[in-house]
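**Fold in tokens:**
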Amino acid sequence: ATVEHRLENGTALRNNTRVGGYRKFYQNVFPGAVSAAGTSVSISAYSHGTERDNLFNQTDVVIPFTTGPVTHEVLAGLEFARQETANLRLTGYFTTVSPTTTSVSVPVSNPRTTLPLTFLPSATDADNFGVAKSAAVYVQDQVTLLPQLHAIAGLRLERFEIDFRHRRTGAMVGNRDDLVSPRAGLIYKPLRQLSVYTSYS
């Protein structure tokens, strides 16, 4: 959802909100080691599911003004984001062979099996939940030095946090970073349809 409002003095206010939900699931039955004689191959299986929910909100204000012969276009804004991710991996068990059998051998000449599979968590399978959050404030000025020459300078301050929980063991991990991102650039327009630029960030 995007909402934009322009004031009479040319100032523009804009808010953009995005909500996303993603669900991914896949399941594989795959070959493993071949026997020394080359007559049989092992078959194993797993399934993996990921659920991810995103929320992003960005608010900008664009203010044009002049100082003497120089034209400015100042962009300032706030950005907030939150992402929740859950991962679950399960191992395929051939429980009709034994409760702990995760691999069976089949002939290379006919590498199939009709044994039923049961997908269960093993000690090394992922079962985790993570929350990532970020908040940023930024400002940028685009200056028209000459009709063909523009300069850009900006700064972004951001805080990024992540909390991660291994649901099988209960282990928790967290981290926070504070980031400073400068930006500077020059834009040269020798022709109306052509721009040449250099930038650093």
Summary: The chain has a mean pLDDT of 95. DSSP finds no helices and ten strands in the chain. Residues 11 and 63 are 5 Å apart (CA to CA). The two ends are 29 Å apart (CA to CA).
